[in-house]
């Protein structure tokens, strides 16, 4: 089963667009978990929240930071999910992207070794370089577009002068122009994140396995991305919870016409809550008010 179909089944089963990020920062875990505390902590969160999610996301940095034992915890968590809850999609948040055979190694680690269903990637190297990811037809390839950090605009908001004329193929210019609101930009300039959204949705998505990352801190930009990519592409939304993203504004800007099309990620606010099950349930209910 490919990622999109698996995701849709999980959404329907749990009536949920919520993704829980298993960001198990080892410095915040109880010593009572012992040497295997990352894995055991993750296991407890999974069992507490499994009926309220559409997916889980593991940011590899929290595991890589502590070396061998962290990589083992990452692997053990992925194995546990695939064995006990194979119906729930597993997103590896690795933000990979390089050239040639280097990407082949990343692909093998994420999909063969860890058994992930999807991965986050960096578009900076272009389509040719990241083709080893895009060619994995059954996997979700989630491309960074407008990230949730405060400094995202330094690069992602750079203006490409006369970008529509210079970069968008001639036969597609009318469609591109119709998808955007250029009222504040009389020269039809566009920003880099908009161009990434266009390229991924119109040029890279030949296998219909691409998604985009758009942070909840930027609902106006999310609205623009939704216009560019259309109704079918799913967007992964970090930034709800500890980062302060506005849930209502995010959902109104990003949901497609079917009340779907978003994966709303929350990490710290759930996994380190006093009652992760209740916190996940509460957020799922809040999301569903707008779906």
UniProtKB/TrEMBL annotation:
Record's signal peptide: none
EC number: 4.1.1.23
KW Lyase (keyword) present: yes
SMART domains: OMPdecase
Coiled coil, from the record: none
SUPFAM superfamilies: Ribulose-phoshate binding barrel (SSF51366)
GO molecular function, one term: orotidine-5'-phosphate decarboxylase activity
Keywords linked to the UniProt accession: Decarboxylase, Lyase, Pyrimidine biosynthesis
Enzymatic reactions: orotidine 5'-phosphate + H(+) = UMP + CO2
Residue span(s) of domain Orotidine 5'-phosphate decarboxylase: 17-283
BP term (GO), one: 'de novo' UMP biosynthetic process
Enzyme's top EC category: lyase
The protein's annotated pathway: Pyrimidine metabolism; UMP biosynthesis via de novo pathway; UMP from orotate: step 2/2
Similarity annotation: Belongs to the OMP decarboxylase family. Type 2 subfamily.
Full protein name: Orotidine-5'-phosphate decarboxylase
